[in-house]
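<goal> How does this chain fold?
<sample>
Here is the protein in question

***
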Amino acid sequence: MSAADLSSVREVNFDGLVGPTHNYSGLAVGNVASMSHGGLVSNPKEGALQGLLKMKSLMDAGYAQGVLPPQQRPDIGALRDLGFSGSNGEVLARASKEAPQLLRAVCSASSMWTANAGTITPSIDVPDSRVHFTPANLQSSFHRYLEPQTTGRVLQAIFRDEQHFAHHPVLPATPAFSDEGAANHTRLCCEYGEPGVHLFVYGRQAFGDVRSGEREPKHYPARQTLEASQAVARQHGLTEAQTVFAQQHPDAIDAGVFHNDVIAVGNGPVLLYHEMAFLDEEGTLDELRAKMASPLIPVRVPLEAVSMEDAVASYLFNSQLLSNPDGTMTLVVPGECQEREAVWRTIQDYLLAGNNPISEVIVKDVKQSMRNGGGPACLRLRVVLTEAERAALSGRVLLTNALYTDLTAWVERHYRVRLAPDDLADPQLAEESLVALDELTQLLQIGSVYPFQLG
């Protein structure tokens, strides 16, 4: 790749729009925030506007920003597959009475956390020079298992040009290949247009002898398997020299760190992580250093500075780490980081004042998402694209002032300001959601991607 081509490569953050059925049902086992807020009243309109405002502020700051649509919810088709019949209203009413937990699951707006949408490998890292996509199967929880088919259609609708993009099938939806997407994957490099090393973090091993010294969590499930991470790497054509597979610390999972992006975040050559992120911290760093072409810049936050409780409650490590043209980095943190004295002190005295590229911290209010267990990093899917690849995107998905205005007006027209779990059985909510999503696909110009549009 020429110097001119290299300079045109950019990371685009594709944020998921918060869906019209955004609610607090406490569905995610092991996600402390989700479980602790279950049953509370949500504000879908506020959630969507908070997400859009974060996207707009980053676009205004010069970062490339994209948008991904929410899923069709409630997923009445899933309820019909489970034996509920009749009109849509009858299906919802019966599910509400007989299996309220299923109704809550098929109404989940969890697709807003697009870090789980899939795993992406840039074209510079693969033999065929195309960007590779694998949607995550998310089989560890029923409400997220419902997402991959639509996710795949959305990704193929946007990244449609086969000259530039390659799409792979979802891994088998079995416990052995449990895949949670980019929430457990980080690409480290010098410049985006230069070859990178892919850090895959897993919670457990499904087959064979467990690696020496490894163990599994005792209280909460480990969602990502080593076998799933290895399979995605094979799909994308990554070699042993390009990959590092590290086990997440099981004690962190038991503390509520259900994905690695709740305890570590990397970008460029920088890996910001908590002392409890990896079971074999030293071995993980040594292997990264050995395989990276440029020096790794580890930024370690010790347990004595930020407790596991504070790390999970503040989502410090679920922040967005963004690269700037001058070599510095900006950290986008949720407002909850200011509410924890130890976390805010660490940001000021350790990160900003430390010997590392992080020179700026931006605080964003994403409370509606945070209460369901997703911070700034959960809300975005990172896709490294060349100028030609960006030009090959289909639809109207790269954020502009005009698109932001249109999306904000769309939210104002279609979203409710109050949604309690009992409201999920309202057939009018289902109808409102379909009308909104049909309009959204036209606004984004991505064609028919939802089941109700496909017939």
